Task: structure prediction
Amino acid sequence: MEKNSKPKFEKLEKKASKLNQEEINIPDNLPAIAMRSNVVIFPNTVMPFYVGREKSLYALEDSMENYDQLLFVVNQKDPAVEDPTEDDLFEVGTVVRVMQLGKLPDGTFKVLVEGLARAKRIKSIEKKYFKFKIEILKKRYQKTKKLIALMRIVRDEMQKYVQYSRKLPTEALMFLEDMEDPDVFADLAASICPGSLNEKQELLETLHPYERLEKILALISKETELLEIEHQLDQKVKQRIEKSQKEYFLREKLRVIREELGGEEDAEIKELEKKIEEGDYPEFVKEKARFELNRLEKMSPYSPEANVIRNYLDWILNLPWNKKSEDNLDINHAKELLERDHYGLEEPKQRILEFLATRNLSKTMKAPIICFVGPPGVGKTSLGRSIAKAMNREFTRMSLGGLRDEAEIRGHRRTYVGALPGRIIQLIRKAGVKNPVILLDEIDKMGISFQGDPASALLEVLDPEQNKEFVDLYIELPFDLSEVLFITTANTLYNIPDALRDRMEIIEIPSYTNTEKFYIARDYIIPKALEELKNGKNKIKFKEKAIEKIISEYTIEPGVRELERKVRSIIRKAALEIVNGKSRVVITEKRIKEFLGPPRIKEEGKLESPTVGVATGLAWTPYGGTTLFIESLLFPGKGNLIITGQLGDVMKESARIALSLTKKLCGDEFSSVFEKNDIHIHVPEGAVPKDGPSAGVTIVTSLVSSIKKIPIRNDIAMTGEITLRGRVLPVGGIKEKVLAAYRKGIKRIILPKQNEYDVEKIPKDVVDEMEFIFVEEIEEVLKEALVSENK
Result:
């Protein structure tokens, strides 16, 4: 802005001092100032405020020069808004008269105003600053006995509020004592009444003095009640402090009397001294314990600090500083135990056997940090328990799901009331040895809050180079965690911070195939459930066809938790039949419906026949793989692309790349089709979020099919990322995706060439029934997927 366009205030201070004492006529148009404080100016009150914003300075200059020092003051709805618009202001404000005006060294002006009348802004008449056409608001009323009584009640409640509150001087009530005008009385009371901006604004907008006084009374009564409670609490605290001082004085006198009578030794102190000297503790632990015991001797046994020291000594003297269990390093025993408790899971079993073998050769080897990653219900937690059993170690478990406080790992400092060690030290004490197996469950579900980041605290715990001297904030002594075998579990890896993931050895546990579920149900779940019946375990028998029916028609999950629930449900119903008189119950395929009701799995399988524009893709989820239909449709339009199905940003980009590539593949022959039609790409199950680049080849296949009107084979599924040049790039989750296709009865799979090695991880019985087509270019995909291309 140019210098000569800024408001001129050199003579405004002098003008403000020459106040017009004649009767004031309020014009229909007035310049306005937006108040961004929480103070609301009421009529009949005098209030100072500061003006510094350019818009407000222009309005103030206009008021002083053209409107006899009259202003319209209106509050902002949000005081934080620096440059408010008309929509940011309340509708009702106050017409004020400038009484004094002073310029401050920082260039702002301090303005003292007198509230004259309520007014409502009608419309804006100036763009450079706020200036409104206004309407004066007045309410006709009668001074009834009821109104006079309400004024007295408010006056009494105000006196009570000022008595309790330290914010207002008693002189604030002088204006209310002799005021007989209800309207002026209500405005004066509102100006000193406690309340928020919105509550004060509501009082300003209330025209009738009786209604205004009712609202003022409600606000004051509420605040007075809170102040009374605070006063009562202050009195109670004061009394307790006096009582505590009195008790301390009497206890000290009692202590002196005991010393004069011969000084009887405290049995508790004596017992702790004996425990320290005879216990198997490192020297630094004994030194710390003696120091704390010496402090305990010198203080009153009933003081709060004495209890803190007792709890601390109890913790450090009951930790297994040197006690540990002897590992069972028998490889055959461990192998037999793991095979007995778990079906499959060859990789994690092999890793444990390798660890035991190396421990046989080197007793000082550091324990690995193992992380089992896989969908829910595949046996991650139970595998950790079996590992502890196989090694003859104590087992403890801690769930990290939803953990947001760093102190849960590191503990609280003893200065806090009710402080305790962190969960790691608590688990060590519970185990009773310094080398247990500690399972940290759901490590991918920790959170971050103002209380710290638990994942960062775990960095030291799970680092074999650092955890030899782990210091809990409560214990304040280094504890050796290097011999602890930490096992963590997670459903996904992407939620685990990189620094934490780098400290762990990742072992993926994939979802089970239906064949694996059958053997798990037959050899583990059913025998375990029947064993609990004791007397009736030999009276219930499951046919193999019945087990297969439960798996295929009543459960769809990567693990076996739902399968176990279904089996137990059937056993309960069978037990009821035995109690009612049956000697034996055989669970056949036909009886499954009787026990569990109609099949609940209505999962859509493969398409019934080749279809134009519908391609079958493969997707990975945290709970296993699934198939995904990509649909595309052409209709008259202007060449727009419509994408639906709650897709993420990456998948939307894949769709745009696929469209560009499709235009190239179709060539000039179909250019008019793209220009005269809109293309709609949809991925069904719109309530489920979807993202990732692996649907690229599927989208291209669907688009080419729609453009050329060529059906896509219904017995083939595909996955792979696509580039603008038509290259097919590798993707993840191949095993889960292939198992999903196998479950749906699709036996031909198109995979990127670079994913060929992933097929080795798929169970052999599945691979034997599948046909894999490995591709590098999109033309190879279309040749296999489109019906006419394959002829």
Observations:
- Residues 1-22 have pLDDT under 50 and may be disordered.
- The chain has 27 helices and 26 strands.
